[in-house]
Predict the 3D structure of the following.
Amino acid sequence: MIRHDEGPFDVVVAGGGISGTMAAIAAGREGARVLLVERYAALGGMATLGLVQPITTWGINGTYVIGGTARRILEGMIEREPDSATELTHYGPTCDAEYLKRELEQAALDHGVSLLYHSWISGVDRDGDRITALRAVSKSGELELRGDLFVDATGDGDLAVAAGVPIEEGSQGITLMFLLSGVERERCPEYQEMRELYRQAGPLSYRLLCIFWAQRPDSVYVNMTEVEDLDGCDVGDLTYATIECRRQAWGILDAFRGSIPGFENAYIAQTAPALGVRESRHVQGRYILTSEDVVTGKSFEDTIARAACPVDIHGSQNAGLGEYSGVKRSYGVPWRCLVTEQMSNLIVTGRCISADHVAHSSVRRMAPGSALGEAAGLGAAMSLAHGDVRTLPVEPLQEKLRSYGAILDPE
Ligand SMILES: Cc1cc2nc3c(=O)[nH]c(=O)nc-3n(C[C@H](O)[C@H](O)[C@H](O)COP(=O)(O)OP(=O)(O)OC[C@H]3O[C@@H](n4cnc5c(N)ncnc54)[C@H](O)[C@@H]3O)c2cc1C
């Protein structure tokens, strides 16, 4: 592994979530010198540090669909270590965070990616329409990370904002996920009955029961704490949300223990190290994916990824149910959602791509995020020779993505 101070790099990826990791792997596989910068000490982002599971896939007609390198990595992990995740059901697999951290890290290293943890990106150096370096704060002081191409996979569009690219603000309920263990699964009622029992219990009984069985038989991931109308990029709001959600988690534990058979001895094994922000900034790209595109299953000439996850807007609307509706067909995501008018060497991927509020609520999931990441990384590697991400010929990119198992065509 090349150290971060042995740059400049061909491609610098900011943010080691599922999308940034796939981007780094895809660029590294093409032979680019890649640096992946992450503020925490593991890869996976929400999928590991956020304890967010399952990896939601397409969700049409109960089918399990995830393509490309992410599929290969997950299948390989499950084959080698059957207790690393639940089976690939129509929900997608529910993975153990520790296995997934190790798997993603090893996959990145195997593809020649240099990792830099413990480094917060705080700004960019810009020369005209090009970013020349990232600035990061770290225990070693301020870092200057030089590169040719940059991928913004921070989820919040931190690079785009620092470079002066326009963004739209969005907001959904913020959640601190937690893992409950000590559950006697064989004594638990069916899901709907649990939901009804929980509904009748106080003091947080207005929250809909939302749990996912983990790969360990005595554990569930709990997706139930929530605060809303906060800014996911405001440190004061993030602090308040963390404290409030952690308080709620203990109340939810009491309600579980007191109302659902099998949960009497449950305990909080872990609250997530990273707070779950569903939505913050949408970078304004050359195309903005719309709710109509998602609902009508639109395809584009420059489609570089497909998704079909339900529209899912969390919050207290509809008596706490939020807005949730499946889509009937998969839709394409165009390359233009990953690139901006302003910058010639910036590619955006994952949660902060160019999409409106409703489209975002579908495309933000982890299977699409992985597919977008692979396209971003491959596109970055191909742009090194081409020079400008905005005019990259997309057909060769699509061809190459297909050769790695990406799903680009309608079902
Ligand atoms: C509570 C909750 C429940 C969800 N449920 C599901 C679900 O059931 N299924 C599903 O598929 N999806 C779900 N999602 C959505 C999904 O988990 C995320 O949208 C997706 O994982 C985002 O991936 P990403 O790689 O774009 O971003 P992230 O996973 O957020 O990764 C971004 C990475 O960048 C790093 N980073 C950010 N800023 C900086 C910086 N300035 N410097 C350095 N590093 C930085 C972060 O630490 C992080 O590792 C849920 C989300 C939440 C919050």
Residues 174-277 form one domain. The two ends are 40 Å apart (CA to CA).
